[in-house]
Amino acid sequence: MKQFIAAACLVLSAATANAVDIAISAQDAYNKVKQPEAKVLFIDVRDPVEIMFTGFTDMVTVNIPYLIVDRNVWDDKRGNYKPNYNQNFVAEVKAELAKRGWGPETEIITMCRSGSERGEPSADYLRDNGFVNARYVVNGFQGAAIKEGPQAGFRLQNGWQNSGLPWSMKMNKAKMYRVDK
Which of 76, 6, 58 is nearest to 168 (CA)? Predict the structure, then answer.
């Protein structure tokens, strides 16, 4: 039994030895992807409608939603439309890697609005599906909400937007997830 446990630990150790930490700051993600020969797939995992109202950075490689809002189903508990998992998420990530001649060992960075509801879970999901170098941007695109004071509830700290990194309200049609393609 001890030999089995030791062997299992060795295999797990070897599998994770080459994997990068899962969390990355917005600034570090920017520094990686701005390199001319960067071999990083930077994915905005937000629903395109959300991007339309919160902004976009053209530094991302592509927009592939991890969750897609179903505008036909209302979630009474949350008081909004129900999001569904994008059943094609892994296949779409694989297709983007294949376009570039990259494999599953490629560093993949995901980014959502806050980093918690889609950013980290999408990176975990990618790791569970063989992409050992998947990561997510901590605090996401908009950052964390201020907890107290007159601006309580506004996302005005950390994240991509609040780090002085390039973004705009203009979406890049060539990078956006579209069902009409």
Answer: 58
